[in-house]
Amino acid sequence: MSVPSSAIAATGRSPWFGLGVGVFAAFCFALSVVLARAVYSQGGAPAAIIGLRLTLVFIVIAGYALVAKKPMRLPRREARIGFALGILLCGQTLSIYASFLYVPVSVGIMVEYVYPLLVALMMRVFAREPLAPARLVCIAVALLGLSLILRVSFAGTLDPRGILLAACSAIGLSTIIVASNQLLRGVDSLRIMLHMQAGGAVTALIVFTALGAWQFPVTAAGWAALLAIPVLNGTALFCMFGAMALIGATKTALSLTTEPVFVLIIAISFLGEALAGVQALGAALVIGALFAMQLYGVRRQG
């Protein structure tokens, strides 16, 4: 998705403003992820986070669409696809939040954030989209960085369950992006997100209730963190849509690359997490490769 320069100029805002909105969205996403630790420390569980997050974000998006008189309905085929992707969204979100029970938040996010690389590979396989040499180099560098981050796991320092859950999240997120790109092309993002959130919320409510998995925090601080997560996530989604309207999807993706940077800063500053020298180098390689890949996409669009 992109907008012509005339449309950007018509908003009275510079492209830097759009990038700033995108970076703020990344910060909100990062903070919503890091707050999971506060929920867990106060007796909460991943199911409570996922169920509440998906449900409240769906309510907010639906309310916004009603107030703004935005179209919400999709044709039957597209609606079913969106709902099915929402089921996958529920599993993907549960995977990443559950990974934080076993590995540091910073490590889990770095593993999940290989998803742009997986998207590029999947688009090559399923859409025959060419892989330019620049992207191949970025993928190689990111994989090298990821191997350095996970190097300590071979010595037993990292729980493999956390790594596996984060990897499942990356695969799930990549699948959602590629499937929506191929099956829902031309459908506006708001309606896709609305149906996905609905599918995810219904799935969470049914499955978690059937399994008796609801486990909420036992303190006011835990509840504050739990409620802040969907608020931050919803704010991030609206900022993301706003940035897309201002600067287009490609540049918005570039701005969202700052999310793992924010996660690292917050996790190190407030959770006491630390990356060893080799891990820090690996994180720098992964983030640098992702940024370079997105920047390459911006230049190609230009």
Q: What's the layout of helices and strands?
A:
Blueprint: H1 5-10, H2 15-34, H3 36-41, H4 46-67, H5 76-99, H6 105-112, H7 115-127, H8 133-149, H9 160-183, H10 189-211, H11 220-247, H12 249-256, H13 259-270, H14 277-301
Number of domains: 1
**Mean pLDDT over all positions:** 87
Low-confidence stretches are 1-12
Number of distinct beta strands: 0
Number of helices: 14
Termini separation comes to: 13 Å
- Portion of residues in beta strands equals under 5%
**How would you classify the helix and strand content by structural class?**
mainly alpha
Dominant shape: globular
Fraction of residues in helix: over 70%
Supply Rg: 19 Å
Order of helices and strands: HHHHHHHHHHHHHH
Characterize the largest beta sheet: strand count, sense, and whether it forms a barrel: none
What does this structure look like?
This protein has 302 residues and is mainly alpha-helical. It has 14 helices and no strands. It has helices at 5-10, 15-34, 36-41, 46-67, 76-99, 105-112, 115-127, 133-149, 160-183, 189-211, 220-247, 249-256, 259-270, 277-301. The longest helix is centred in the C-terminal third of the chain and has 28 residues, at 220-247. The radius of gyration is 19 Å and the shape is globular.
